[in-house]
């Protein structure tokens, strides 16, 4: 199986032909650049050959206004016959090897793969890679997940939750209050300095 069969269409911007179920006119819907199934196709107005939009955009960066078929390139909408064949394709999800058994219509492929329960995701705590469908349950138990104390708002790992007892919580609250007092003292000191700076001006105004 092609390596791109294991990538979502969003990651690869292409669809390997071996992912398509059933028979279809492969030549009609194959990109002339990447030689895979057309994805978000556009066509050359001069020769009417079709390309994946990403493929032809990369081509144009290297050879502006030149078609892969050597004619002048001007983009146009892909012809209706090709779009019709594409719309009828049933495509295996790229996460089939991980357990997804769904065949998705061409039009809905990108959305399905973005939401597929069988896509790999990393745990926010231990960074272990799991299937999306298993992630929530794992993170409810993972001892590396960050938790926040509802009382003092201290962050700690789930494995350290037992060590965050009432005494530590009170100490943390006390430290937070000390920090707040220091901030208030600093603000008060700055305000006093500002008032001292105004005193000469107030005196001049009073004598007038």
From TrEMBL:
Q: Does the keyword Iron apply?
A: no
| Zinc-finger in keyword set | yes
Q: Which residues form a coiled coil?
A: 164-198
> Domain RING-type spans what residues?
31-68
Q: Which UniProt keywords apply?
A: Coiled coil, Metal-binding, Zinc, Zinc-finger
Q: Name one GO molecular function term.
A: zinc ion binding
Q: Residues in domain SIAH-type?
A: 88-144
Signal sequence region: none
Quote the protein name from its UniProt record. Answer: Uncharacterized protein
């Amino acid at each position: 199986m092609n390596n791109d069969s294991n990538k979502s269409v969003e990651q690869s911007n292409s669809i390997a032909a071996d992912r398509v179920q059933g028979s279809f006119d492969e030549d009609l819907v194959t990109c002339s650049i990447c030689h895979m199934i057309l994805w978000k196709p556009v066509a050359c107005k001069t020769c009417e050959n079709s390309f994946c939009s990403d493929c032809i955009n990369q081509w144009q960066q290297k050879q502006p206004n030149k078609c892969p078929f050597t004619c002048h390139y001007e983009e146009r909408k892909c012809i209706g016959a090709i779009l019709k064949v594409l719309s009828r394709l049933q495509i295996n999800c790229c996460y089939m090897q991980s357990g997804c058994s769904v065949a998705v219509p061409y039009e809905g492929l990108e959305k399905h793969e973005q939401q597929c329960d069988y896509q790999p995701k990393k745990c926010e705590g231990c960074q272990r890679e799991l299937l999306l469908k298993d992630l929530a349950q794992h993170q409810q138990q993972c001892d590396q997940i960050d938790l926040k104390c509802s009382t003092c708002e201290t962050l700690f790992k789930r494995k350290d939750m037992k060590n965050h007892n009432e005494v530590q919580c009170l100490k943390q609250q006390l430290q937070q209050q000390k920090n707040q007092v220091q901030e208030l003292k600093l603000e008060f000191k700055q305000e006093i300095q500002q008032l001292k700076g105004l005193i000469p001006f107030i005196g001049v105004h009073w004598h007038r």
